[in-house]
Amino acid sequence: MPGYEFFGPEERKEINDVLDTGIFMRYGFDGPRKGIWKAKELEQAISQKLNVAHTHLVSSGTAALTTVMAALGIGAGDEVIMPTFTFVASFECIFSVGATPVLVDVDDTLTLDPKAVEAAITPRTKAVMPVHMCGAMADMDALKAICEKYKLILLEDACQSFGASYKGKALGTIGHAGAFSFDFVKTITCAEGGGIVTNDEETYIKCDAYADHGHDHLGVDRGADLHPYVGYNYRISELHAAVGLAQVRKLDTFLEIQRKTKKIFKDALSAIPEVSFRRLPDASGDSATFLGFFLPEESQARAAAAAMKAAGLAAFYWFDNNWHYIRNWEHFKQSSVMSRFAPGLQQAMELYKVKQFPVSDALMSRCICTPINLGWNEEEVKQRAEKLVNAVKSAL
Ligand SMILES: *Cc1c(COP(=O)(O)O)cnc(C)c1O
What we know:
Oligomer: single chain
Number of helices: 14
CATH architecture of the largest domain: 3-Layer(aba) Sandwich
GO molecular function: pyridoxal phosphate binding; transaminase activity
Bound molecules: pyridoxal-5'-phosphate
InterPro entries: DegT/StrS_aminotransferase (IPR000653), PyrdxlP-dep_Trfase (IPR015424), PyrdxlP-dep_Trfase_major (IPR015421), PyrdxlP-dep_Trfase_small (IPR015422)
CATH class of the largest domain: Alpha Beta
Organism: Chitinophaga oryziterrae
Active site: 186 (proton acceptor)
Strand order of the largest sheet: 1-9-8-5-4-2-3
Number of strands: 12
Helix content: 25-40%
CATH superfamily of the largest domain: Type I PLP-dependent aspartate aminotransferase-like (Major domain)
Radius of gyration: 21 Å
Keywords: Aminotransferase, Pyridoxal phosphate, Transferase
Distance between the termini: 29 Å
Structural class: alpha/beta
Shape: globular
Strand content: 5-15%
């Protein structure tokens, strides 16, 4: 990770196919496009790769989550349970459909704690949205059982975990629907892009319409399409889809490299008794984009992250990060929106001005994640593993 590290002639070839025809839009222009349909081709490739019935591409992961929430009927007054540790886009999308985010604690999987989810259910709960952070999975059996028991929608934010799986099923394909991001720093990239996957045909058809002004896409003449619903424009362009098409073909190579490198880092760190690792509900399905670990004390984690950075290693200490953990989401806590929320949502958000998350804090303040890059050679990996061990030891 990230996929852009291996941008090469394959991506250039796919982009040139589109440049040659000059048709950058995914719909219509059947004659001049000369059989080039990159978005369609990438959708088919993803469905096949993940063994899912339907894929619909859009312009970003944020657009994918917004679109699929609308398609699943999540709207005003509905509560969506989501974790305290995620990227800000997770709550942005809930706001964008007018629904209410309900933040709950993560556990040592760095994803939704199923017990915290169950405790947060109210008569207004409509959906549970686990976020498969840093390339690996939430406890999907437990979350699925809760959603079945309370008849809730299970929507997977799998934006960071394309190619990862849980008990043999691709992340994103286990709940009612899943969303991926193909932005520039994700596992595979379209430069900018996103995708929705689902086995439910109705959800797919609604996503397809929502992301293109409500068009039903049933006729041959776009101008004569009917609009059974109001939609918006979250279309992906053919140029972006072309990049993704070359990238998805490299996914297995990416995963193989990441898993091999991560094992070397993890084996090295295992020699330090104070280190404990992020719990993976199915280790074999980890896409291995990151290695996550905990130290016994916050002060040690801070010192270790600083020592790693000083040694030239990347260290994400999420507890202090502005984008991925609730502690510094001042704009969220203060509802700093540019136009007013609906009254009910504004009222529901008041709680976050004061709410604390001591359980999440206790975990996140001791956690460090280090990314696994694709471009390192064997010697570099060995040296980095050594530096990692020395940096962590120096903090204990
Ligand atoms: C990247 C990301 C998104 C949003 O994807 P964009 O393509 O950048 O809009 C959503 N959720 C998570 C967890 C992400 O990491």
